[in-house]
Amino acid sequence: MSFVLREVSVRHASAAHADLGHALNAVTLTIEQGEQIALIGPSGAGKTTLLHTLACAHPPTSGEFSVFDTQPWTLQHAARHVLRARLFLAPQTPPLPPRQRVVTAVLAGRLPQWGFWKSIASLIKPADPDVAYDALARFDLQDKLYARVDRLSGGERQRCGMARLLVSSADAFLVDEPLSALDPTLSRQTLHTLQAEATTRNATLVCSLHQVELALEYFPRIIGLRDGRVVFDSPRAAVTEAMIAALYRNAKQDASGESLPPAPEPAEAHFA
Amino acid sequence: MKMRAAHPDPAWRGRITATLIALIVLWPMLVASEFKPWILFDAQSLDATWYFLSSFFPPAHSSDFLLLMLEATWQTIAIATAGLTLALLGAIPLTLLATESLSISRLESGRMRIAGAFVRQSARWLLVVLRSVPELVWALLLVRIVGLGPTAGVLAIALTYSGMLGKVYAEILESSEAHATEALLQNGSSRLSALFYGALPAAGSELVSYTTYRWECAIRGSVVMGFVGAGGIGQRMDESMKMLAGAEVSTMLIIFVLLVAGADLVSTFLRKKLG
Amino acid sequence: MNSRRPAPPPVIAPATLALLLGLLALIAASFYSLNIKWGELFTTSAVRSSMEFLQGFAPPEMAVPFLIRVAEGTLETLSMSALGTGIAFVVGLALALPASGRFGAVARGIVRLALNVLRSIPELVWAVILLIAAGLGPFAGTLALAIHTSGVLGRLFADALENLPPACEDTLRLNGAGALSAFFYAALPQIAPQLMSYTLYRWENNIRAAAILGIVGAGGLGQMLKYHLSLFQMQQAATVIIAMLLMITVVDTVSFWLRRRLTGK
Prior knowledge:
The complex is a heterotrimer.
Chain A: E1 3-11, E2 22-31, E3 36-40, H1 47-54, E4 62-67, H2 77-84, E5 87-90, H3 102-107, H4 116-124, H5 129-137, H6 154-167, E6 172-176, H7 184-201, E7 204-208, H8 212-218, E8 221-226, E9 229-235, H9 241-248
Helix pairs in contact in A: 5-6
Chain B: H1 12-32, H2 43-54, H3 63-98, H4 105-109, H5 114-132, H6 135-146, H7 150-175, H8 178-186, H9 191-225, H10 232-242, H11 246-274
Chain C: H1 14-34, H2 38-41, H3 44-55, H4 64-99, H5 105-120, H6 123-134, H7 138-162, H8 167-174, H9 179-213, H10 221-230, H11 234-263
Helix pairs in contact in C: 4-5, 4-7, 4-9, 4-11, 5-7, 6-7, 7-9, 8-9, 9-11, 10-11
């Protein structure tokens, strides 16, 4: 069992949104090890909050939450940190230091496994450049191995963040909008690589997406979120156009500043 | 799927070379500065240090001594204030001479007359020499001319800081809006009234805030100059160090910290009120 | 009609006026209490003896063996400043970690207080104290520079760290990296340019400071100056002062040029 959430609620992190109520509201979910799930829903639905909650970034305000059959927020700080090494959260715009080289940024995915001295040594001479090369090659970025991060385009930076995911040894990938800066071809390649890796490792993959049609095409299980609540949670075959239309109907325009505007016609995929 | 290709770091050789060069440069530097940390830990120096440090506590606090400290602290502040006042008196005429935008002769031909340029250039050189000699060296020389005591300190601060203030004032006045000044000069006003009605209003707050910052620096400087005999709390500390009176030294260190923090507060306050 | 004209605002606000009067009082009190004997400064005998003193400096000593010793002193001064700044960079960075609140608010308060103490005691005073432990010579000067500069840089580095957007480091931490590893992989590369420019700026300051530290016996050109002045060897002292001026001018020019290169394109 990867994740079990029972009636989990989370308050908005920033005080500015405190009056909006909960970012997640009584969410109940069970996710088996090795499942591949797409999270869809309009902007501000709570997709990012849910991914952060799964990654143990913040404790739920109420409800029960367990990861790999342990309750992270009852653990000691150090034990919880060990648990975090088994989870990999890839944020939407991967925050990478601009002057760092790609090889270092990718190998940073190994940090939880490395001791302190090994990580320092790798700053001076990359510990395993071949691993970073292979990971980048799966996103067609192998030429950028020794380039600086600030020389990459937005899409290349996003895939650089995914390459970090590949070199990590996590058992669950929590990926936030991996396609927001990619064109259709690269989007498919990226989803394909993520899923292949998850399948090989039998890792759980939870991926939030704006592109409903890609979500339906690639993921066997779809969770629709809106206003912090699970609207539907069904196998791909059971998701109807009416359900999607209801999910996105009259969605708020302003809830989330940085993600894409919510799709007025849900079936249409958005590429930035 | 694994392509076992070697992908060596292209920067590696450069890093090795840079490290080697750094080490080769470091070696003579360590020799020149007699860098021998182990002498800190030989028995004799550890004993001396321990003996000295253990006398730090409790800090000296007899009322006689504190009274003496109060007097010395005031003397330090007074040296800094008087020195900076004299520096201002020296810096203002030099600034007027050195500032290009306040030149009348420039208006006529667009270029300055030779004599004007000569005076301006010599004023600039004087400012350079005044500020390049460290204040402590001025103090060391002046102590030999005017004798031990605060007079040398006041003069040393006056000399160094008139150089610094003059240079920065000239820069501030030149970088501030030159239009107003030029218009006034063209309509026949004198250099001084051009300064007061043109340049000063534009740059006033910057001038004030730089001057208060320098006052803060002058306080630190006057502490240090005591060590060459120019009066104030530095001179007292020099005496206490020579007698290895740790308790007195620790009181004075506390006073230093408070004095510097206080000067910092006052100068921030002044900048806010006058700037 | 006159009565309808708005009253002119006071030329100076009363509070500012009071402040200015206070400043004038401070200046007056300073001159009064220092009791400077201006009269004695400008008597003919005083002026004559000062002129004699100054004439003693000319011509500066230019014998080659002495010039070599001055060059050694200059090298010693430069080494002291470079090593002192280098040590301060490492120590300052180490202290900046707790001072930026990474180990809790209590550690932050304590370390910030310590940094303030380190930097409010001038290099020269540190040198005087260190002479006891390190003995006369450039080593005490190097340590004094290192201690004072650690305080200055530690505080600047801590402020830089606190102003850094935390996203990079948080992401690594969230994925299970250790605190120190995350610092070296995320925070440090982001603030590195800032650290370098602060450190170079302090180095420039420290070259000036190193030149005078010797006056209390802590090595470098200052020690030569003090030595020759105390033996009334004015011509040698003049050479040392010229060397100091040259060194400071060269450093200023080089750093001005470097900075324009760096801030220009």
